Amino acid sequence: MIRYITFTASLVFVAALFLCHARNMERILFWAFIVGNVLYYAIGILLAFAWKDNRAFCKYICPITVFLKPLSYFALFRVTCDKEKCISCGKCKYVCPMDVDVTDNSRNRENGTECILCMECVKACPKRAL
User: Span 76-130: which CATH code?
Assistant: First the structure.
């Protein structure tokens, strides 16, 4: 939810600058870029320490997923699970940096659009079910 708020706030801010024909727009945008990045990373680092999750920035703040998440529903390549081979050991979920449950093949699976295709789950699967 935070990513949508920050993306919307950024978009409104830049649009307002252009619509108001702000003077010194280059300087304003430069400082907004610097301050925005410092805030993004400071919040990401704080969340990483607070939640003991080194990918907190990517999971909760990164505004890039505003575009990527909807498109991932139509992805041509996805990690799928062969339920007949799967022994439900949980190793795939344990090694996944994004906490994606790859054993659920549904396109609507929880956190399914968060997969970064690192293939750690595939490497960890003892039965080659992924």
Answer: 3.30.70.20
Residue 104, exposed/middle/buried by CB under 10 A (0-12, 13-18, 19+)?
A: middle
> Per the structure block, which two tokens stand in for 37?
């990045």
The Cα angle at residue 116 between residues 126 and 92, in degrees rounded to 5: 20
Average pLDDT (71-98) is 84
Region 2-13: mean pLDDT is: 87
Closest CA to 83 of 70, 102, 97: 102
Please tell me what DSSP assigns to residue 21.
T
Question: Is pLDDT above 80 for 72?
Answer: no
Cα 37 from Cα 31, distance rounded (Å): 10
Predicted structure pTM score: 0.58
CB 107 within 8 A of CB 70: no
